[in-house]
Amino acid sequence: MSDPVIDLLTALRDNVMGVTESTLATVDGLVVASDVDKTHPESMAAVAAATLSLGHRLADQGDTGQLREISARCSTGHVIVTAVGDRALLAVVTDEGLDQAAFRREIPAVTAELRRHLDKDVSS
Amino acid sequence: MSSLDAALSRALNTPGISGAALLDAVTGLSYAESGEVSAGRDSCEIAELARTRLTQAGASGELENVIVTTSTQYIVTIQLPRQGDPLLLCATVDRERTNLTWALRELTRYADELLA
Amino acid sequence: MTEGPPEPLTGSRNIPSLLSALRSQERSCTVVVAGAPGGSIHVRDGLVVAMETPGAPSVEGLLLRSGRVSEEAWSSVRATDTTHEHLAAELVHRGLVGAGELEVVSLSALFDAAFALSLATPDSWEVTDPVPTLYRNAGVTPERLLAEVSRRINLLAGEPGSVAALARTRMESATAAGLPGAVGTLPARHQDVLANADGRRTARDIAFALGRGLFAVMVDLRQLLDRGLVRPRTPSADTRPSTAARGAPSAVSPAAPEPVSLPRRRPGNTSSPAPRPQD
Predict the structure, then answer these.
(1) For A52-90, what is each residue's pLDDT tens digit?
(2) Interface of C with A in 170-189 (CB under 8 A)
(3) Residue C66 forms contact with A (CB below 8 Å)
(4) Number of domains forming the structure of chain C
(5) Is B29's CB within 8 Å of C212's CB?
(6) Is C108 within 8 Å of B56 when comparing Cβ atoms?
(7) Which of A5, B58, C5, C44 might form a disulfide with A33, Cβ 3.0–4.6 angstroms?
(8) What's the total number of domains in chain B?
(9) Which of these, C221, C232, C231, lies nearest to C189 by C-alpha position?
(10) Domains of chain A
(11) Is residue C253 in some structural domain?
């Protein structure tokens, strides 16, 4: 019944204190899956896609190598956009108490796993 | 010395007030204590009881204070509203040395300067 | 630190004994704790003055979320002090927060973080030079900290282990349809907690959302639970991955490599993500 991709997003919220919402989207801004309550996934997908593309250009301008993530740090929380392979992205909304250490630990595995799911999508 | 401790010990200069404590109304955490405070230990529960049960029973308005009278003392608990969870100022008052109205007036005055 | 770390520190079996050792040596330092959640314990002259952890709102969070201090005022205060050592004095000096009020917030955040940290088993810890932090209190002895934490756990405990479980539980309102009468007579703070109990948030998440303490929210949740106004959200999906619970001791054992608690796609499982354009 449950979608494994949604499960991954829910697991991220379970495993990392402070994660409240997340949206998986294509780099052109279309929603693939979301685990949200307050955010509007379609809007988040569109803005996150634009942000990620700007992030790549920022990295180019700064000559700082490959972009890892781009985050908006705000007074009562953060929005963190991470690339999932070349074709997708993950936008995570957190509160200000985000467990940064746990986030750093979990996110590579989560994006790798998401990527595997999306790759199967294309090959089938 | 913390500013809370300093403010509380000033309250003890009032004749008849032998002890005072500043508690968190929800968590029961004691932020500061001065003088004889053992009688005020359960003030938090008593105030919670007054607040919730009386409201359920139909009492209207916010809790302002609870006064427990024994043959020798008043245990006065004043709720201090603030942004966030309220605080409780609990004081042990000697019945022999002062009257309730005066003690309440003094304590309310100290309560105002406590958080300033 | 001019003198090297004295002997007892390395021999400390747990955080409380470490804090006692620091107390007897009247050390000023910051203890960085790794765990789920981890945190920082700030010690000045042997007394604990502040603690921070992702598990409970910080002084900054309490001041900003509750609206006591505006974002604008906060930024301008921070601009005056890049080290954060004098933030508390500056907040009071500018009349943004009363000295007594800031002391109350500082102490409540400290005891709340201690409570939150006590619900998880630490992986490891490291004693570092003092890291500047926002605090305003005269310092708390390790004994008092410990006594207060056990008082809190006893207050919440129904059966053993239930406090950590309660902290992890995502509560949802049980009053969706009826009982408006019962909700109407609730104190405002219970109504706020109820409004945030949406089945997604843990007590910690609600505490952050409201800018209140973790323990205070748990006390309220317990009362709401006892009155039948909230209920634990039962995970509906049967195929949901068995995710390691937050702060589960199994996940913090240093011997075993950290299990990656992610679901595996089973061969033959044909469910695919929601439709998306071919790329």
Answers:
(1) 999 999 999 999 998 989 999 988 899 999 999 999 999
(2) none
(3) no
(4) 2
(5) no
(6) no
(7) A5
(8) 1
(9) C221
(10) 4-123 (3.30.450.30)
(11) no
Nearest to B6 by CA among C47, C148, C143, C99: C99
CATH number, position C222: 1.10.10
Reply yes or no on whether the pLDDT at C1 is more than 60: no
Q: Which residues of A touch C276 (CB under 8 A)?
A: 26, 30-32, 121
Domain that holds residue B59: 3-114
Structural domain span for residue C46: 13-141
Report whether pLDDT(C111) > 70. Answer: yes
Q: Which residues contact C190 (CB under 8 A, 6 or more apart)?
A: C220, C223, C224, C229
C64 shares a domain with C121: yes
Contact check, Cβ <8 Å, C263/A11: yes
- Sheet with C47-52, strands from edge to edge, namely C47-52, C39-44, C29-34, C124-128
DSSP class of C119: T
Quote the percentage of chain B above a pLDDT of 70. Answer: 97
Mutate to test the interface with A, among C260, C266, C269, C270 (most CBs of A within 10 A): C260
**Above 60 in pLDDT, residue C238?**
no
Measured between beta carbons, the chain A residues lying within 8 angstroms of C258 are 105
Its ipTM equals 0.91
Co-location of C197 and C111 in the same domain: no
Whether C257 maps to a domain, the answer reads no
Residues C32 and C132 in one domain: yes
Q: What is the pLDDT of residues C100-110, one digit of tens each?
A: 999 999 999 99
Burial of B20 from C-beta contacts in 10 A (0-12 / 13-18 / 19+): buried
